[in-house]
Amino acid sequence: MKRILSGLIVVVLALALTIVLTACPAKTTDAEAGQTSETGVTEVTEDSSPKSANSDMFTDRDLDPSYEDATAIDLSRESRSTLEITEAGTYVLSGTYNGQIVVKVGDEDKVQLVFDGVTLTNSESAAIYVPSGDKVFVTTADGSTNHISCGATFSSADTESGDNIDAAIWSRATLVFNGSGSLSVTCDNGHGVVSKDDLKVTGGTLTVDAKKKGLAGKDSVRIHDGTITVTAGGDTIHTSNDEDEDKGFVYIEGGKLTLNAGDDAIHAERTLTVAGGVLDIQKSYEGLEAQDITISGGTIDIVASDDGINASEGGSGKDNTDDFGGFGNGGGFADNQDASLTISGGTIRMNAGGDGLDSNGSMTVSGGTTCVSGPTNGGNGAIDCDNASISGGTVIAAGAQGMDVNFGSDSTQCSMLVRFDSSVSGGTDVVLKDSEGNTVLTYTPEKAFQSVVLSSPDIETGETYTVTAGSQTQTVEMTETIYGTGSPMGGGPGGFGGPSGGMPEGGQRPERPDMQSSATV
């Protein structure tokens, strides 16, 4: 791992004379489709949610926020400090309540909580606590605005269950958030939402602000749709399960996510899959981290002070340097793990302070568009993998010399690594032209750079290209599929890891917050 502060990435791609390539277009926004719902004892709403592309991830009921035969509860009339729900069914909640809602039903029972103008506050423990049950649906009614806040110190475990209830919403059962209204969750001293099972979001507007983790599911976090904004002192989305190798995963196929993390934006113990959606990671230590990362669709913007995308065995955020004394804080010798990064589609725009695309195992690119700006420290690389191959898609990665590497000899698509004689200022165009003067690729990194990897289906063997950055020009003769290999062991001054061994600028390594939860770790 390497730590360097980072800023925002700006990607500008030009119109070619004979070839048009739109890599890393501007950010887009999505408008949500709504549905009609009114609070009542008996109410049915129409299901307008799109079906999931993966039926193994979501059930029909997960995607259907409709309800019927509901029991209406006006929380403003409750005088008890605890409201217990002990029977399966649907409950429409409204009003303001200072206390705790406890859902305690049978292990095979399902409960649907429909929020229709709820303000729920608890300063003693979790605002919503689910000690037992199969699945709890939290449905926001159409047009409704709902708030949940928790200011508890979480000083001790629950006396009856022994659970360390350390979140505004804490559940042993699967949690599903759906609907078309809005829900904000605030936790001053703990996590936002924790499930000891699966945590799913399939619709609605969900905003979470937590001191520790934002959304945490022990078995999985799955997102189908919705507008999700998470600000957290730890990971914004987190999952880990050391007991079952098939669990501890994150799956995202849709929705619009805006994430600001004090630690990793999305952290999965085992697998992380992005098949669609819009991910705007505005702040993170590492953007995406898991043992195996697969990106097949969607639009992903990442700002990270360390690695933008990191595939690392164990997915625990460790530097994986203990075996070899920590050369370069995770460079070089940490590779050859059982980890993988696979990119087959989507658009990725990245501003990384450490490595851009980092895999301690294998890296395979077969599609999509990936643009990397950074790092500026020679102890890190825009691409960091000793076993990387490319067969399709477009990759443009600009960073420092020292640990810069190209795709390997197993690649079937042309890729070039070009080094300039001196550092190029951020905001300077990198322009790739063929022998006839036609522009093939244009990219404008915001950060300073001295090395750039360019790969595209439009680059061919037997062709001569020029790569220009400001006043500097390099000529590239593509006699083979791969031009320039780089130096994975750190060819810059200072040996392994470059000038400062992978440390951030200034030589100080930032402390990662201790944001673990007994509920999810």
What does this entry show, briefly?
By secondary structure, the chain is mostly beta strands. Helices cover 1% and strands 42% of the residues.
Defining key terms:
1% helix; mainly beta; disordered C terminus; disordered N terminus; twelve-stranded parallel β-sheet; 18-stranded parallel beta barrel; 42% strand; 521 residues
**Largest sheet features:** 18 strands, parallel, barrel
Give the count of helical stretches: 1
Number of strands: 40
Shape label: elongated
Unreliable stretches covering 5 or more consecutive residues: 1-22, 28-42, 44-49, 316-333, 490-510, 514-521
- Give Rg in angstroms: 24 Å
Beta-strand content: 35-45%
Can you tell me about this structure?
There is one protein chain. Mean pLDDT is about 85; it is low at about 1-20, about 30-40, about 45-50, about 315-335, about 490-510 and about 515-520. Helices cover about 0% and strands about 40% of the residues. It has an 18-stranded parallel beta barrel. It has about 525 residues and is mainly beta. The chain contains one helix and 40 strands. The radius of gyration is 24 Å and the shape is elongated.
